[in-house]
Structure formats: C-alpha cells, structure tokens
Specification:
The protein has helices spanning 4-12, 17-24, 28-36, 43-53, 57-61. With 65 residues, the chain is mainly α. The chain is 65% helix and 0% strand. The chain has five helices and no strands.
Length: 65
C-alpha cells in the first residue's frame, strides 16, 4: 500500500527524497520504497521520519479502515 501521507508531508516541507534520506541516515531508495509501499520500515525508522517531518506516527503510518 502506497504511503501517500509520507510523500505529502515530505513535499509540504519542501524536501526531496534525497533530502529526507540524508537527514535520517538512509538512502533515497529507502524513502522511495517506503512511499511506494515496497518496504516496511522499522519502528525506529518510522520515528526518525516523523521527527524530521514534524508529524506523529498516526499521521504518517496509520492505515485507515
């Protein structure tokens, strides 16, 4: 399942995938794979992404319905 909330939050902060990846210490490919739903990140990585984007886990990773 694609993570469009993550992509929208990243764009809202005017960050590229590479920018976000650099901030949290992963590759751009990792961010791309998470956004595409091809990679299930660890909770530690989820928390790092949330901190970088100023969002909560629920806001970025909770699946509705």
């Amino acid at each position: 399942m694609k993570n469009l909330k993550l992509k929208a939050a990243r764009i809202e902060k005017d960050l590229t995938q590479a920018d976000l990846a650099k901030q949290i210490g992963v590759t751009r490919q990792t961010i791309g794979a998470i956004e595409k739903g091809e990679y299930n990140p660890t909770i530690k990585l989820c928390v790092s992404i949330c901190k970088a984007l100023g969002k909560t886990l629920d806001e970025l990773f909770w699946e509705e319905g």
